[in-house]
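Appendix B. One record, verbatim.
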Amino acid sequence: MLEIRWHGRGGQGAVTAAKFVAEIALSENCHFQAFPEFGPERMGAPIQAFTRVSKEPIYLRSGVENPDYVVVLDPTLLSTVDVLKGIKSGGSLIVNTPNSPQVVKEKVNAPPEIGVHTVDATRISLETLGRPIPNTPMVGALIKVTDLFPLERVLEVLRKSFGKKFSEDIVMKNIEAVKRAYAEVKSV
């Protein structure tokens, strides 16, 4: 079972991203869970969301305590939240930031066995969507780092899922955002 913990702020799309990864898992005939953890916070407050993906049934009904991957949509959270809490040895941290992976690794004091990956998802979302919503670019970065699903499958599910809610123009801009983040993610 693969476990992902998402850190973001209300309104950045962390919950939507967690659910979108679950939709992709469904299309791949995997078992999955996706759920948020937040209270009565307002827009901009720190939130967490979780995704589990497995080839076998999932019986856990708790938050993700020991994630394989941690995805951070807002780099300001690196100073206020212990994003590495419980991360498995050999796990990876994926951060939306213009900084290099080495800078982030030092900032969070990541041990050598934790991979650190960065992508400027905010810049990508501004350039493709015209709004600072980093969730779809961060899904692109996650897919590149994890190799969990083929990129074409991700884009196919995005077309189908987003096509029910958004115009063709918005769907195509989100596809571009995913592709760019997939191509631009940096690792250390």
